[in-house]
Amino acid sequence: MSELIYQLGSGGIFGYILGYAVKKVMKILAIIGGLFSLGLIFLEYNDVIHVNYLRLTELAEDGVLTAAQWLSPVAVNIPFAGSFAAGIALGLQKG
Fold first, then answer.
1. What is the pLDDT of residues 2-41, one digit of tens each?
2. d(CA 42, CA 64)
């Protein structure tokens, strides 16, 4: 029983910390990504470069699949994963 409590507590704490940090990092990455996209659109509009949007979409999809594979080991331990997910949700909300 104490192992379950430990898993639930540590999962929630780690999840909260990770969720808070992820939200802060995602805000910064969203700004950088938006400025980068704006720069690409501007350069393409002025015929300086040509952007292959099909390849760009494929790269983004590959990145999402890689992130999903990286996060899949969390599902191995259900009590830890459940409290971890709840902690992430709270961290994202507060961050």
1. 666 666 677 778 778 888 888 899 899 999 999 998 999 9
2. 26
Unique residue bearing structure tokens 């979409």: 57
Residue 79 confidence (pLDDT) = 63
Structure tokens at 14: 């780690």
- Which one, of 27, 10, 9, 6, lies nearest residue 92 by Cα? 27
End-to-end C-alpha distance for the chain, whole angstroms: 32
What is the full DSSP assignment across the chain?
Answer: -HHHHHHHHHHHHHHHHHHHHHHHHHHHHHHHHHHHHHHHHHHHHTTS----HHHHHHHHHHHHHHHHHHHGGGGGSHHHHHHHHHHHHHHHHH-
